[in-house]
Structures are given as structure tokens and as C-alpha cells.
Design a protein that fits this description.
single chain, 191 residues, alpha+beta, Aminopeptidase, nine-stranded mixed sheet, 2 helices, 9 strands, binds coenzyme A
């Protein structure tokens, strides 16, 4: 990007954003990203209402998406991937995308939000680190990346005994990433 317009608006992602989002993903993540373990939770489509972009006059500066998951059979969400254009990082766009999308999530029926993310980045949004004593996953992710946030619909007292299984909500084929890699090829980490 040669010039950067920092007057951007955060809006819901639309179909036409696909190539710009792919550009941001390419800048934010290694090519092996789609083979990462976390994508085993991303079946079917991203949740339209919660997936937002930071739009500066048609140029996307950032993107956040969510997928529906089940946590101990409760309707829940997986935050990410989140990516901000490298030319405008450190200016609050990532935080704004997380805050606004989580505020939307709080108005829905979702109970918990799960993230496999940078250990330091998500604590400021109220996420709590969890371990494999608390949850189980379809594929291994480094334990220091695992965080959970109870949303307003959560009823922690009504949850079953831990560990809580986390799995995709949809059984549809993934629309946004190939996840048909052999388990042995999976690389863990990233969000
Ligand atoms: C992580 C990312 C989305 C942050 O976006 P951003 O717009 O630069 O972030 P913001 O400006 O809103 O937030 C800056 C704050 O986050 C912190 N931060 C930024 N990247 C971080 C990281 N990878 N780990 C921990 N903290 C990070 C900064 O230190 C800063 O903290 P401060 O406000 O206390 O000073 C961006 O760096 C990015 O796209 N990275 C590549 C993809 C990625 O790693 N996505 C997240 C995976 S979980």
C-alpha cells in the first residue's frame, strides 16, 4: 500500500470482500496457515453478522471472522482469523475489530467465545487462559494459545464437568479454507 487512509469504517463483511480478505490473510499469515490445527473447527461458512472489515474507501485495512462451534454442546463462537494490513498495524484497528465484533456477539445467543491466539493480545478483552484440563479439541494446539471468554448468554454454573469438548457446529464442507490435510501434516499454532 503506498498511501494509507486512516479514516476507515468498520462494517459487516460482504461477498465482494473475498479477494481483499485473502490479500490480508496472505500478508498476515504463512502460506501453511490453512493447514493449521485451528482450521479443524472452521466448517461451513463464517458467521456473517460477526465477521467485520475495516474499510478505508474500498481498501480493506483489517478483517475479523468468526465460525460457529459447540463448547460442551453450547452454541459458541471461534474468534479469528484476525488480520490487519502491516502498513497500519499498531494504530488500534485490530482492537477496534475485536471490540466491535465481540459487542455484536454479546447480543446473540452465543454462550462462549474461544480463541487460539497470541498469549498477550486477548487478555485485554476479558479472555481467560484455559488448559487441556478445561477443554478438548479435534487437533492439538499449543496450550499457551488457548483462551475462553464467557459471553452474556453463558451459564457457567450450568456447564458440565470439565474438560468441555470443542467441535465445529457445522458439518458442511469448509468454504474458506482447505482442511483436508492429513493430520500428520498439520502444523499447530496461529489463529
Ligand atoms: C495481531 C494484529 C491483528 C494486531 O493488529 P493491530 O491493528 O496492529 O493491533 P492494535 O493496533 O489494535 O493493537 C495494538 C496492541 O496490540 C499489541 N499486539 C500487536 N500484535 C501483537 C501480537 N502478535 N501479540 C501480542 N500483542 C500484540 C501491541 O503491542 C499493542 O498493545 P498496546 O495497545 O498495549 O500498546 C496484527 O498485528 C496482525 O494482523 N498480525 C498478523 C496476523 C496475526 O497474528 N493475527 C492474530 C493472530 S491471534
Amino acid at each position: 500500500m503506498s498511501t494509507v487512509d486512516l479514516s476507515y469504517q468498520i462494517r459487516q463483511q460482504i461477498l465482494q470482500d473475498k479477494s481483499e480478505i485473502e490479500r490480508l490473510m496472505g500478508l498476515g499469515f504463512a502460506p501453511s496457515h490453512a493447514g493449521r490445527a485451528i482450521w479443524r473447527l472452521r466448517y461451513g461458512d463464517a458467521i456473517e453478522d460477526l465477521s467485520l472489515v475495516a474499510d478505508a474507501n474500498g481498501q480493506l485495512l483489517g478483517s475479523i471472522r468468526y465460525w460457529p462451534i459447540l463448547i460442551a454442546e453450547r452454541p459458541s463462537i471461534l474468534l479469528g482469523p484476525l488480520a490487519v494490513d502491516p502498513s497500519v498495524r499498531g494504530k488500534g484497528i485490530g482492537v477496534a475489530l475485536v471490540q466491535q465484533s465481540l459487542a455484536l456477539a454479546q447480543t446473540g445467543q452465543w454462550e462462549w467465545c474461544f480463541i487460539s491466539g497470541e498469549p498477550e493480545y486477548y487478555l485485554k478483552f476479558g479472555f481467560n487462559p484455559v488448559s487441556y484440563d478445561d477443554i478438548t479439541l479435534p487437533a492439538h494446539i499449543e496450550p499457551e494459545r488457548l483462551h475462553l471468554l464467557p459471553l452474556v448468554s453463558a451459564r457457567p454454573d450450568a456447564m458440565p464437568e470439565k474438560p468441555w469438548p470443542i467441535m465445529p457446529m457445522s458439518t458442511d464442507a469448509p468454504t474458506d479454507a482447505p482442511i483436508d490435510v492429513e493430520p500428520a501434516q498439520q502444523i499447530t499454532g496461529e489463529c
